[in-house]
Design brief:
Radius of gyration: 30 Å
Number of strands: 6
Order of helices and strands: HEHEHEHHHHHEHHHHHEEHH
Helix content: 40-55%
Oligomer: single chain
Strand order of the largest sheet: 2-1-3-4
Distance between the termini: 119 Å
Length: 401
Amino acid sequence: MLQTVIIRRFIFAILLCLLVLLSSSIVRNNRKLIQTTHLHIHLKPKFPESASPAVPRCQPIKNVVFIKTHKTGSSTIANIMFRFGLRHNLNFALPNTKLYTKDFNYMSKPGEVMTRDFFYPLPDNQEYNILAHHSIYNRTFYHKVMPKNTTYISILREPFAQMVSTYEYYRFEKKFVSMSPERFNASNPISSFLENPYMYTQSGTNFTYMRNKQAQDLGFMQEHLEPSKFKEYIDILDKDFDLIMILEYFDESLLILKHQLCWELKDILYIPVNQNIRKRKWPSTDEDRANHKKFSPIDYTLYNHFLSKFTNSLSIQKDEFFQELKYFRTVLKEVRFNCMFGRTFTVQATKWHGVFNFTNQDCELSNMRFRQAVGLLYSRSNIPNYKNAHKLIERKGIYNI
């Protein structure tokens, strides 16, 4: 009997020890789990992390025509095109004219019939990859001179804002005052101009810097103003252009561009260039806007058509698109902040891209104005005496105010 009691006590003691050891192990593991979880939360990256760098699911498109419209943010887009082309060592279509002359940043101007002489020639068996200069869209010619698999893009801006920006950038005030000193109110110039814009416009023309300029850049001509041809030409643009971006949705436009061209996030990072830092704010009224719509109706029709098309495409985007958009804007802020100090900024890998650096050289290229960038493209052509090596074209195009 006594022996049985001793055995039971011995077994109980052993069980008690095992229970104590087990409890201690659980506590230690719990502490470790708590510490590990806290560490993970503390070190959780600011941006969504992926298990491995994003793997491209398509090949980047390298043949692109960007029709550069006036005062629509197009210089910033052109800068993006330049940087992509330089990064991939692509061939740029450059105007065949002397560097830093009046027309060297134009491929074509209104009234000119484009030929291959407008393009600086490439070595034999090479083709142009990117065109991002000011030019009047000429679908027949561009489809001949550019590769068949070229993607065509452009950008539009709300017409009244585009007109005001044009007025400010080109400083038309002095000319308008001289044309009608007794009527032109320099303290409220936009309203003065729109009270009778035909007074300051060459008779018989519907396309000037201040009138239907975006439509002119996209190839609208007098012949398209017949009712039957007007809609027909908009339908042609609809078919020809893979994307018409909208300035008022600039970041959204770039993200759609990224997806459409299968480019990397780094390719679409930007710093606004060619902005008018001297821009003044002028008062405007509903009457001003109504007068401008009457004066420049083609731009309004064009803009509203492609704005509707763009917002429709935006409305069907999934949540993933808007998450990436938010992330894109966060990276933009970081890049611009670091570029202010000339610092390289490392962007860690996410589900949208692999790790990459945005270097001081990237910053310098992103800040490069259009005319500077064109000079850089000429200099990298490696063609001796590129200013005079080929027969230069005689420019005859005219832009009317």
